[in-house]
User: Fold this.
Amino acid sequence: MNEALSLKAQVLQMGQMVAERAVTLVPSLLGALLLLLVGWLLARLLRAFSHRLLQWSDSALERLLGPGRAARIRLGRSAGLLGGVVFWAVMLFFIATATQLLGLDAFTAWIARLLDHLPTLLAGVLIIAGGYLLSRFAAELVLDASALPMAQRVVAGRSVQVAILAGALLVGADQMGVRVTFLAIFVGAIAAAVVGGAVIAVSLGARQHVANLIGAQQAQRQFAPGQLIRVGEIEGRILEIDDKGVLLESAQGRVSVPGHFFSVQPVVLLAARAEGLADE
Assistant:
């Protein structure tokens, strides 16, 4: 009988201790929940602000570069990624504060270590993102500014983009504390292969371009608009001579003859002036 009463007393005492502990934890629990609610609201607000900031940046780029070029560098495509990073960075800070308020020291220490590495992680991500945007912009400049044919311009633009992006990846990874020795070798091999292919393609395109320039200069010295000529099997009246070739009016219609034809094909002057092909 005494043992039963003793067991009952122990159970009641344990229940009383649990109740007292719960009562003492209620203020801390409510405070932690309030902190999490405030953090969640602030994180959503900052995420929306980051989205709006990227939209504003897209509008500014569109005014600066024009709609066509700006459409290829859209920052809004990264809104989800940037918004997620901002949201969880803010939430981690408030979660760490809430766990400290609840006395969860081990969990608080783990989050604190994570937050200690967060600035370097964010810096690395920003470097990589900035390198990506810069590589896109540089590729667009090469595409628009180069005098090479379109195929060679595309290859040259992609090569510039890969080189800049590879450098940004290495710098960003090093900033985040990643050992970049193997990554540098791997990225360097890829970049070397791409750049080597680009050099070959651009060289071939440049050789053709130079050949057209030389042939067009020869045509300008030897012929003039209005003359009737035959280039290989093409016969027509010269309408225009530019730095890339000669525009002829033939019986089949207008024909653009590349400049290098005047260096490798026989050219015959049929008439110094011609009123039309029908009279010949």
